[in-house]
């Protein structure tokens, strides 16, 4: 029953049709919100009392780090669908999402480490959050490499799903252990994303940037999943209406 | 199960390279390290442990590198599948044998060297126990990495299993600190045993699924 | 007695379709000869029958779930760093081991039984691998190109063995591009 | 809340000396996103062309 339901709504065909309709809205929404959030954050939001202007990296850094993790969770849900119900589309989505996830994780790491130069005086700090983001980045690379190493794509899909699921179980373990390790090692460093309360004049642009980046990444995901679906299903008849 | 354990022991002992190689690498690293630094300037006891930890990580990766590859390449996995219908027992037996024949000797070497570098005599058993347990965890993790990447090279193995190995290394590091500074040893050992049992039971399931996909 | 039945097997790897809607039964005391050109999917079909490979569509049903199958594919499943003797000791025990030693003798491998298998010739390794099938007692024998690399005498021995097993009621499935000279049901996969 | 935090273009670029960090991060971020969009679009166009040729020939 469940399986029949899932398969009906998860055929690559209906996915491509649906996303073709949604894409224009998402991309317009994403780009305009992101532009709004970043211009607001970069030019209008007040200067931070402690960190000065360098804090403005937050409007890129925090959304990136959030989606770095969200994309992995999304991949894990897809992996489960692929392994349990054999949903082909789910594997295609993982394959399309992994490079995007890697990119955004890299962006999170890069922006964090640039931010560290004026704030900590060093571009790399063995801080708990940075370390676990670095490991997340390695996990994305692992997923991408794994899928690329197999010529039989059915095998590649399944092994990739196994790795993604193991990885998502590992994420909280990594966080916990790295937290534990860093509290043993160093005095608490300056928390990079500000104190406990954040002023509305900084919070609103931040929220807008987060939503904007979200829609932008969904649009990107729609595009790259479409190109991958076309590659995998190029011999199917329904493709003809999309070329 | 007994059949599998027996034949795995037999095969591993016949492959001297895979069996003794990791042990020799471990010894080599532990000897080479003090020679490569200026001992008069550094207080070796303070960080010799971390060298042991890193060598344990490296050698256990090297030791498990060919774990399933040989059986995959020569067709033994298919024969095993026809007998058992899955690879749970095979994975369990292999990890068990590898831990006993390579993991525990590695732990012993590590403990002996730490003893020679300023650890009190009465902590010898503690160090040995901790290193053995962490090897149990590491061998499970790397067996998984090897089962995923089988004949696709070490890079894929590292990328897929390193994120799993790092928490183990952190755990190992902090448990060694409990020996150095006294308290919390029992609780950390209990934690490691718990994780070890859980992993030893679950990892073979995942490995079995990965191997099944490989021969498909 | 029916051993297994394959229903509407379709299989493709990536975009290449190997075969479409194959259905057949395998009975005891019957031999099935799968023919076809290179790349027609003979070996894959064998692996589907064995349950190793899952077909894209269709179903292979074992009538008896714990059917004892012996199989030799194009991988020999012998350990090259062990001697033939050690290889057999790893596989067999007691009565089966004695049986295996008998075949070692019949195949003329006793004079190399203590050398490393890696140093044996291709044909000798193949013979050693065949002993796995011959010493096992099973209800279904599945062989992938068993005659490749065998000299005439060994091929005859193998044929006699298979004929004897067939008369004892064992089922047989084999792929071969040369005529196996056994009474077979033919299944042609085409080019 | 909606007042410009800077009074002239130079201040915007300089950001009290932090401009180099802030702007380089945003430059990399924007270019990475734009490049990945263009790669995805190119790929789609490429595969669509291939499918067309395939369909025409068959």
Structural key phrases:
heterotetramer; A: 243 residues; mainly alpha; Four Helix Bundle (Hemerythrin (Met), subunit A); D: 58 residues; 2 helices; 78% helix; 0% strand
Helices and strands in order:
The complex is a heterotetramer of chains A (243), B (216), C (191) and D (58).
Chain A: H1 2-9, H2 12-44, H3 58-85, H4 88-120, H5 128-148, H6 153-185, H7 200-232
Helix pairs in contact in A: 2-7, 3-4, 3-5, 3-6, 3-7, 4-5, 4-6, 4-7, 5-6
Chain B: H1 2-14, H2 16-36, H3 44-64, H4 69-73, H5 76-84, H6 88-116, H7 124-149, H8 154-181, H9 185-215
Chain D: H1 9-14, H2 19-57
Account of the 3D structure:
The complex is a heterotetramer of chains A (243), B (216), C (191) and D (58). Chain B has 9 helices and no strands. Chain B has 216 residues and is an all-alpha fold. In chain B, helix 7 packs parallel to helix 9. The longest helix of chain B is centred in the last third of the chain and has 31 residues. With 191 residues, chain C is an alpha/beta fold. In chain C, 31% of the residues lie in helices and 28% in strands. The model of chain C has no long low-confidence stretch (mean pLDDT 87). Chain D is an all-alpha fold. Chain D is rod-shaped. Chains in contact: A-B, A-C, A-D, B-C. At the A-D interface, helix 2, helix 3, helix 4 and helix 7 of A face helix 2 of D.
Main beta sheet of chain B, described? none
Estimated radius of gyration of chain A: 20 Å
Q: Would you state the CATH class of chain A? A: Mainly Alpha
Shape of chain A: globular
Number of H- or I-type helical stretches of chain A = 7
Beta-sheet strand percentage of chain A?
under 5%
Q: What's the assembly state of these chains?
A: heterotetramer
The separation of the N and C termini of chain A measures: 34 Å
Radius of gyration of chain B: 18 Å
| Count of discrete structural domains of chain A | 1
Task: Provide the helix percentage of chain B.
Answer: over 70%
DSSP strand tally of chain A: 0
Q: Which of globular, elongated, flat, extended, rod-shaped describes the shape of chain B? A: elongated
Provide a short characterization of the protein structure.
With 243 residues, chain A is mainly α. Chain A has helices at 2-9, 12-44, 58-85, 88-120, 128-148, 153-185, 200-232.
């Amino acid at each position: 029953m469940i399986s029949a339901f899932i398969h009906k709504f998860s055929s690559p065909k209906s996915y491509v049709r649906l996303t073709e309709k949604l894409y224009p809205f998402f991309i317009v929404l994403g780009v305009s919100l992101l532009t709004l959030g970043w211009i607001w954050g970069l030019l209008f939001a007040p200067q931070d009392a402690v960190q000065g202007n360098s804090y403005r990296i937050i409007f890129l850094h925090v959304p990136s780090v959030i989606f770095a993790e969200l994309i992995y969770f999304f991949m894990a849900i897809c992996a489960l669908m692929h392994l349990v119900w054999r949903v082909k589309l789910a594997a295609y989505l993982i394959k399309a999402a992994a490079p995007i996830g890697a990119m955004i994780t890299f962006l999170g790491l890069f922006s964090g480490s640039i931010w560290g130069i004026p704030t900590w005086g060093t571009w790399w700090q063995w801080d708990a959050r940075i370390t676990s983001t670095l490991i997340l980045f390695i996990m994305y690379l692992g997923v991408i490499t794994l899928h690329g190493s197999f010529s039989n794509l059915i095998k590649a899909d399944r092994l990739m799903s196994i790795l993604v699921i193991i990885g998502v179980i590992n994420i909280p373990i990594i966080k916990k252990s790295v937290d534990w390790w860093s509290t043993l090692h160093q005095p608490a460093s300056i928390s990079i994303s500000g104190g406990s309360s954040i002023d509305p004049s900084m919070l609103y642009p931040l929220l807008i940037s987060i939503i904007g980046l979200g829609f932008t990444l969904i649009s990107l995901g729609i595009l790259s999943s479409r190109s991958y679906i076309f590659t995998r299903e190029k011999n199917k008849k329904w493709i003809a209406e999309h070329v | 199960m007994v059949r599998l354990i027996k034949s795995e022991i037999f095969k591993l002992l016949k492959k001297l390279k895979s069996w003794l190689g990791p042990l020799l690498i471990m010894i080599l690293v532990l000897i080479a390290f003090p020679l490569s630094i200026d001992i008069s300037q550094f207080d070796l006891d303070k960080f010799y442990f971390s060298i042991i930890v890193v060598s344990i990580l490296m050698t256990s990766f090297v030791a498990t590198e060919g774990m399933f590859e040989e059986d995959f390449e020569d067709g033994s996995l298919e024969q095993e599948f026809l007998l058992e219908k899955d690879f749970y027992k095979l994975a369990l037996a292999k990890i068990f044998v590898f831990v006993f024949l390579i993991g525990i000797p590695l732990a012993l070497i590590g403990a002996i060297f730490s003893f020679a570098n300023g650890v009190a005599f009465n902590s010898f058993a503690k160090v040995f126990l901790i290193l053995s347990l962490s090897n149990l965890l590491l061998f499970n993790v790397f067996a998984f990495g090897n089962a995923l990447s089988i004949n696709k090279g070490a890079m894929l193995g590292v990328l897929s299993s390193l994120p799993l190995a790092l928490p183990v290394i952190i755990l190992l590091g902090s448990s060694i600190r409990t020996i150095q500074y006294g308290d919390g040893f029992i609780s950390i050992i209990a934690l490691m045993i718990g994780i070890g049992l859980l992993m030893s039971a679950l990892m073979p399931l995942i490995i079995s699924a990965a191997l099944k996909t490989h021969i498909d | 007695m029916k051993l297994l039945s394959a229903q509407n097997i379709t299989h493709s790897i990536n975009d290449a379709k190997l075969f479409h809607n194959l259905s057949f039964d395998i009975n005891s005391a019957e031999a099935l000869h799968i023919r076809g050109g290179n790349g027609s999917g003979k070996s894959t079909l064998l692996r589907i029958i064995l349950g190793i490979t899952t077909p894209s569509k269709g179903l292979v049903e074992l009538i008896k779930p714990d059917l004892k199958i012996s199989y030799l594919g194009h991988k020999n499943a012998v350990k090259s760093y062990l001697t033939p003797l050690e290889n057999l000791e790893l596989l067999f025990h007691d009565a089966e081991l004695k049986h295996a030693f008998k075949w070692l003798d019949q195949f003329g491998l006793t004079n190399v039984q203590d050398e490393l298998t890696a140093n044996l010739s291709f044909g000798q390794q193949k013979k050693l691998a065949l002993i796995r099938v011959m010493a096992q007692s099973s209800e279904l024998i599945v062989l992938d190109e068993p005659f490749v690399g065998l000299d005439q005498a060994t091929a005859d021995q193998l044929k006699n063995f298979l004929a004897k097993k067939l008369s004892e009621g064992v089922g047989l499935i084999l792929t071969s591009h040369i005529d196996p000279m056994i009474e077979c049901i033919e299944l042609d996969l085409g080019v | 809340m909606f007042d410009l935090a800077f009074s002239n273009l130079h201040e915007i670029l300089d950001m009290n000396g932090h401009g180099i960090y802030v702007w380089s991060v945003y430059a990399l971020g924007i270019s990475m996103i734009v490049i990945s969009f263009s790669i995805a679009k190119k790929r789609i166009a490429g595969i669509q062309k291939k499918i067309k040729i395939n369909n025409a020939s068959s």
